[in-house]
Amino acid sequence: QQCLLAKLQEVLLLKSHGSKIKSKSNPAKSILSILIENISTILGDVAVFRCTVDGSQPLCVQWQKDENCIAEDPNIERRFENKEATLRILTCEAIHSGKYTCQVVNDAGQDRCFATLKVQGKPPMIHEKPELIKVTRGDPVSLECRVAGSPQIRVKWTKEGKELQSSRKHHLYFDNNLSSLNIQSSQPEDSGEYLFEAKNSFGTCRCKVMLVVLEQIVCVLSLILMIFYYHFKQKKSFRQHSLGN
């Protein structure tokens, strides 16, 4: 059997102990004194198995997954030093779930122990979202929310309990984890609370976005007031400057 040397330093040990099987031929010469443990992790995280080995040299350590030898993989590191055998998966994917076996062989016989790895997905999370958007009547507006999670995320927008669909009025996009609801020409009836929802098999998250559509006359009045205020400040500043001279 091929010896596979591990290349690793730290170990993540989670949940219940794995099982251990001893050989019948002189097991005291080849002993797995610390069992590897079952691990539960999430996609993209690190998973590490470790067991301490004591026995007559030379010792050969082999790691298996689902009873098959683990092939060389840049994503998997192995190390066996100071009587410690370790296996580290740098970035866990769904295919890494399964039963892992650490087998140690020497002239006296063999020992092996095993544990399971369960790789779960991540529930969606909302990273970027607006809370209040103001727009002038007739202008386009975009409501955007950025999410993260795995596996595949499904998103939807609702208003007053009704799910919005792409139409001549609303355009819905979801690309690179960015969901956007685009309104081509904002109208007063578009004002209100919009609910965004992201969902996958591991959970659901939601957020609310408030849209306020302003009448154009309000914007014109606001502009007039701003101009008036600006001229008032300029005139006041000029008088103060004149008095100072």
Care to describe what's here?
The chain is mainly β and 245 residues long. The strands form 4 sheets. Strands 1, 3, 5, 6, 9 and 10 form a 6-stranded mixed beta sheet that branches. Strands 12-19-18-14-15 form a 5-stranded mixed beta sheet. Strands 2-4-8-7 form a 4-stranded antiparallel beta sheet, with no helix packed on it. Strand 7 (76-81) and strand 8 (84-89) form a beta hairpin. It starts with 18 loop residues before the first strand and ends with a helix. It has one helix at 216-244, and strands at residues 19-22, 30-32, 39-42, 47-55, 60-65, 68-69, 76-81, 84-89, 98-106, 109-120, 122-128, 132-136, 141-150, 154-159, 162-163, 170-175, 178-183, 192-200, 203-214. Keywords: Membrane, Transmembrane, Transmembrane helix. InterPro entries: Cell_Adh-Cytoskel_Orgn, Ig-like_dom, Ig-like_dom_sf, Ig-like_fold, Ig_I-set, Ig_sub, Ig_sub2.
Helix count equals 1
How far the N terminus sits from the C terminus, by CA atoms, comes to 99 Å
CATH architecture of the largest domain: Sandwich
CATH level-3 fold name of the largest domain: Immunoglobulin-like
Describe the sheet with the most strands: 6 strands, mixed
Task: Report the structural category.
Answer: mainly beta
The first-level CATH class name of the largest domain: Mainly Beta
Record field, number of beta strands: 19
The chain-level mean pLDDT equals: 82
Percent strand:
over 45%
Q: Tell me the radius of gyration.
A: 32 Å
- Tell me the CATH superfamily of the largest domain: Immunoglobulins
Poorly predicted tracts of residues: 1-28
Total individual domains: 2
Q: State the shape.
A: elongated
Compressed to H and E, one letter per element, the order equals EEEEEEEEEEEEEEEEEEEH
Secondary structure: helix percent: 10-25%
Transmembrane segments: 209-232
Keywords: Membrane, Transmembrane, Transmembrane helix
InterPro entries: Cell_Adh-Cytoskel_Orgn, Ig-like_dom, Ig-like_dom_sf, Ig-like_fold, Ig_I-set, Ig_sub, Ig_sub2
GO cellular component, one term: plasma membrane
